[in-house]
């Protein structure tokens, strides 16, 4: 067999981009049912074609005899965390254990060094029953062997929709006496102008306010203009966002949650962030915004029957909230890190 040749992907050329994405998706889906949640073709294409000020991204295909057997992807933030690079390597199932992933990883690490990055992040998924370390699974084993440490362990959970109104009413009623004076606001799509600055500030802090384990990360950019850039990209990706915030008596946004649907996966939705500002905790705002947002989603997107979320395994408070809503664990996601 010929040696693998690595070429950069052109997101604007389907002949280059589509086989690259097929290799990525095939490797993700081979892990098992409900384990991975790969981004869909047009979502990734839009992201790589319409790069904004937040980050630079690029992809590479590993070709053997003209066939894409390995895919690589690299993202380097531009506004924050400028010491970091996030990367992915995927090999199609029938071409594994031939050194392709190692060659691609070496290429990605070299590009990261060229871009001045000293900390690398990568992820791997495996079935929930395997355990927190992913012992014996291909993704974690590959990461460990190449000098990556498991910095944070997450659990993937699924919720079948709709959630009964009786349960939602009960959870909301139990929380309401604890957040008197706070106002819940829900909407679909872009953030209203009067909430934009507070939203941007709170969402930017998620990276450091949520459990980080051993990850070396800093808060993300809180520039409202970047929020608008992200919203424009969502539209290009065919995604719709459902949002709820809690507004404190002084007008500050102190809690938020958002869920995303996509035209490319009918019937599915994905929980993105949920955060209560540190000084507003203890008022049961986490459960309040999640219940309100579920009501919004179920009223506005009745075709959605499955909601996916990820939580750090150590985030007991959020896991408790999700379990009360009915989420059940199905898989694990490891966030790995390596210092160059």
3D architecture notes:
This is GNAT superfamily N-acetyltransferase. GO terms for molecular function: acyltransferase activity, transferring groups other than amino-acyl groups. Keywords: Transferase. The two termini are 32 Å apart. This protein folds into 2 domains: 5-117, Aminopeptidase (3-Layer(aba) Sandwich); 158-332, Aminopeptidase (3-Layer(aba) Sandwich). A 12-stranded mixed beta sheet has the order 1-2-3-4-5-12-6-11-10-9-8-7, with helices on both faces. It is globular and about 65 Å long. The longest helix is centred in the first third of the chain and has 16 residues, at 14-29. The protein has 10 helices and 12 strands. It has helices at 14-29, 41-49, 100-114, 138-145, 165-175, 196-204, 206-209, 224-237, 285-300, 316-325; strands at 5-8, 55-64, 67-77, 84-91, 119-127, 149-160, 183-188, 239-247, 253-262, 268-276, 306-312, 328-339. With 340 residues, it is α+β, with helices and mostly antiparallel strands. Strand 9 and strand 10 (268-276) form a beta hairpin.
CATH class of the largest domain: Alpha Beta
Shape-level CATH architecture of the largest domain? 3-Layer(aba) Sandwich
CATH superfamily of the largest domain: Gcn5-related N-acetyltransferase (GNAT)
In DSSP terms (H or I, runs of 4 or more residues), the helix count works out at 10
Classification by helices and strands: alpha+beta
Write the CATH fold name of the largest domain: Aminopeptidase
- What's the Cα radius of gyration? 20 Å
Distance between the termini: 32 Å
Order of helices and strands: EHHEEEHEHEHEHHHEEEHEHE
Q: Strand content of the residues, in percent?
A: 25-35%
By DSSP, the count of extended strands is 12
Strand order of the largest sheet: 1-2-3-4-5-12-6-11-10-9-8-7
Mean pLDDT: 97
Largest sheet: 12 strands, mixed
Low-confidence stretches: none
Helix content: 25-40%
Protein name: GNAT superfamily N-acetyltransferase
Domain N-acetyltransferase: 4-164
Keywords: Transferase
GO molecular function: acyltransferase activity, transferring groups other than amino-acyl groups
């Amino acid at each position: 067999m010929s040696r693998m040749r690595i070429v950069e992907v052109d997101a604007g050329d389907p002949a280059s981009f589509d086989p690259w994405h097929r290799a990525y998706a095939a490797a993700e889906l081979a892990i098992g049912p409900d384990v991975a949640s790969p981004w869909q073709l047009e979502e990734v294409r839009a992201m790589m074609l319409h790069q904004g000020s937040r980050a630079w991204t690029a992809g590479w295909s590993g070709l053997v005899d003209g066939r894409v057997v390995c895919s690589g992807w690299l993202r380097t933030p531009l506004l924050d965390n400028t010491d970091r690079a996030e990367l992915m390597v995927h090999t199609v199932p029938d071409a594994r254990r031939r050194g392709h992933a190692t060659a691609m990883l070496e290429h990605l690490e070299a590009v990261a060094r060229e871009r001045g990055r000293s900390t690398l992040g990568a992820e791997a998924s495996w079935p929930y029953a395997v355990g927190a370390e992913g012992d014996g699974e291909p993704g974690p084993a590959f990461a460990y062997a190449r000098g990556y440490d498991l910095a944070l362990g997450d659990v993937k959970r699924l919720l079948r929709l709709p959630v009964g109104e009786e349960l939602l009413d009960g959870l909301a009623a139990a929380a309401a006496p604890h957040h008197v004076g706070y106002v819940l606001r829900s909407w679909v799509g872009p953030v209203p102008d009067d909430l934009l600055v507070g939203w941007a500030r709170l969402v930017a802090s998620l990276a450091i306010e949520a459990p980080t384990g051993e990850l070396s990360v800093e808060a993300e950019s809180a520039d409202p203009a970047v929020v608008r850039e992200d919203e424009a990209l969502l539209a290009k990706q065919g995604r719709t966002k459902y949002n709820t915030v809690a507004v404190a008596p002084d007008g500050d946004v102190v809690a938020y949650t958002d869920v995303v649907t996509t035209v490319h996966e009918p019937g599915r939705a994905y929980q993105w962030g949920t955060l209560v500002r540190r000084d507003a905790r203890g008022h049961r705002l986490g459960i309040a915004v999640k219940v309100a947002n579920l009501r919004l989603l179920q009223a506005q997107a009745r075709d959605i029957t499955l909601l996916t979320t990820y939580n750090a395994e150590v985030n007991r408070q959020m896991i408790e909230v999700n379990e009360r809503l009915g989420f059940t664990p199905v898989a694990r996601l490891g966030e790995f890190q390596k210092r160059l």
